Amino acid sequence: MATAWSAYNAAKWDGHAAELYGRASTLRIEADELVTEGGQQRLLDVSTFNTWIQARNEGNEKLAALYVRRFSAEFKVAFDAWLKTNSFSNPTAPPGPSFMPEYRNQQILQGVATNQEASRIFDEGTAARKQSEEYTGTTVVLATVLFLVALSPRFRSRRVRFVLLLLTGASRSTRS
Q1: Domain count, the chain
Q2: Contact status, residue 82 vs residue 45, Cβ threshold 8 Å
Q3: Which of 58, 76, 93, 142 suits a disulfide with 71, CB 3.0-4.6 Å?
Q4: Cα–Cα distance, 152 to 166 (Å, whole number)
């Protein structure tokens, strides 16, 4: 019974590990998508900002206002904060809104958090796999003990029986 129970648990923990690894992989894909989309949004904001600077320098206020309306909400908050630094006359001002502490790209932040969650779940999968390996090792030892105990009565020689019983004890103690 112990052998069957150990084999069952080895299979159960192995399946749990596979499930956790699958979930971690799915989360990594989601994280990559979020970070990629966030990076694309940041690139769009920076590109739009550069075009805003060009329109502003050319004195085209109408076009500059159009570009400001095209900023993402997160970038707009940072843009307003950047303007308050007197960025065009202050040499210590950050080079642009994306360098401001107010700039928070939610997709990138969510992608980083999702990737951290994937790492945590992957580590759980590794722990489950180790548990499965422990049960597998125990199953092998128990099966060996059963085999040797079942084999010993087949021999008439007490010495052979004794050696088999010693091997049985040795196989149990190597697993402990």
Answers
A1: 1
A2: no
A3: 76
A4: 11
